[in-house]
Amino acid sequence: MTLVNHDTVRTGQTGQWLVSTDGQRWWFDSGSIALDFAYTGALGDNPAGELLHTAGDLADWLNERYSPQVGGADSAAAPSAAPAPRIQTQDRDLADALALRGAIARLARAAADGRDVDGQDIDIVNLFAATPDIPPALTGGSRQAGRTSPRAGQALSTLARTAVELFGPDTDGRIRYCSADDCTILYLDTSRSANRRWCSMQRCGNRAKVRAFRERNAASAAPAPASGSMADAARTTTLSRPRVARHAFEAPHQP
Fold first, then answer.
1. Could you say which DSSP state residue 19 is in?
2. Looking at residue 54, what DSSP letter applies?
3. Mutual orientation of helices 91-113 and 152-166 as an angle, nearest 10°?
4. What structural domains and CATH numbers belong to the chain?
5. What are the start-end ranges of the E strands in 144-236?
6. DSSP string covering 78-146, please?
7. How would you class 230 by CB atoms within 10 Å of its CB: exposed for 0-12, middle for 13-18, buried for 19 or more?
């Protein structure tokens, strides 16, 4: 018997592969599935561009995160265990998903910028979060409880509830931009010490290390000031000039 834990289904594993405009493929872990979802195209600086062109694209993205194996952790030892039925999506589900995604992206920008949020975006997230989500379930039973496969709406509700946690008080000040001067990607800092600086060490973190290394090498290779320069000569002349007593310039006393 395996419990498909509700928290595991709700939060899932964060991160996804993105492709920069220069063709570089890199792993970006935003720290939240809600932010991962926003970076499928709603945030304007997304290096990967739009990922959700069709309802099928949405289904693939949701199924990668919200369709665990029926066999759970024991599925590898049980070859007969079949994967859970896939989430099916339609065009209206894609429209709903894009509306939710846009609200999450705008709320994330406002949080990172320290601006007031738009109440309509909060309403959108709350509306999706209020609908039924993907429920927890135990495997190994003999009867089917509920639907055979989760609906797209349930997956979006689960995603919206993750967004509620993302913008809650526990993450205040932890939604921030990458520290690179030329990068505006934002993330949720989930580190215990709250010291994450880069969108990805593979990308901006590595660039910063290379830049710092080159600057140190350039500084150590810089030639020392040449001796005998004009400044040194002027300083030497000033120091060696004989000092003349003030009375030598005074007019002689007339009797």
1. E
2. S
3. 0
4. 3-213 (1.10.3300.10)
5. 175-177, 186-188
6. -TTPPBPPPPB--HHHHHHHHHHHHHHHHHHHHHHHTPPPPHHHHHHHHHHHTS--PPPEESS-SS--S
7. exposed
- Which two tokens mark 60? 């693939």
| β-pair partners for 25 | 19
Amino acid at 194: A
**Phi-psi region at 97: left, alpha or beta (left = phi > 0; alpha = psi -120 to 50):** alpha
- pLDDT tens-digit readout, 223-254: 666 555 555 555 554 444 444 443 333 444 44
Q: CB neighbours (10 Å) of residue 3?
A: 13
- pTM value > 0.85: no
- Of 225, 96, 106, nearest to 159 by C-alpha is 96
Q: Backbone phi, then psi, for 171, in 5-degree steps? A: -110, 15
Residue 226 corresponds to which amino acid?
Answer: A
What would the pLDDT profile of 49-104 be if each residue is shown by its tens digit?
789 999 999 999 999 998 754 444 444 444 445 556 789 999 999 999 999 999 99
Maximum C-alpha span of the chain = 134
- Cα–Cα–Cα angle for 179, 159, 106, nearest 5°? 45
> What region, left, alpha or beta, does residue 228 occupy, with left being phi > 0 and alpha being psi -120 to 50 degrees?
left
Residues in the chain: 255
pLDDT at 3 over 60: no
pLDDT, mean of residues 23-51:
83
